[in-house]
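2.7 Reproducibility. Because tokenized structures are sensitive to small changes in the input, we list the exact sequence used for Glutathione peroxidase, including any N-terminal residues retained from the expression construct. No trimming or masking was applied before prediction.
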Amino acid sequence: MTVHDFTVDAADGTSRSLGDYAGQTLLIVNVASKCGLTPQYEGLESLYRDLHGRGLEILGFPCNQFGGQEPGTDAEIQEFCATKFDVTFPVLGKIEVNGPDAAPLYTHLRSEAPGDFGPDAGFLYEHIKKTRPEAIGTDEIKWNFTKFLVDPDGKVVRRYEPTVTPEEIRKDLEATLA
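Resulting structure tokens (single pass, no recycling of outputs):
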């Protein structure tokens, strides 16, 4: 099974097959509008504008599971992304990424790249250790702006924890596009 085998909901309620992205490098990110990491939208959009023509597609999935930091409706989220960050990459329908109602895509992403979240995540590690200690050492998504790099064949290449900025992964993206 690959990422291309999944169907997701778009923000307008229609379904979108991720098979439509076969042959493209994907960066899949759980996003939020009211998070301290929300400015990462700028870096994601910069990557998208620079690398989209070479085959990069970024897919944002709003999620409200972390501190209630994505409380809006799909329409409100679209408006926020367009007006605050001039986002042009697809921001899809709001989902859950952990727990019994996790989107099947995210269950797959987590199992393929469980992550290595630890003290090197700095302030976020300390926050998770205090607020969600049961998540440490699991494949759970720890917070907003966890990123997954997926190759053109739909295979998960790598997981980047939230504190890794879009700029820090540019080299990996470019290598996957080459």
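The chain has one domain: 3-172.
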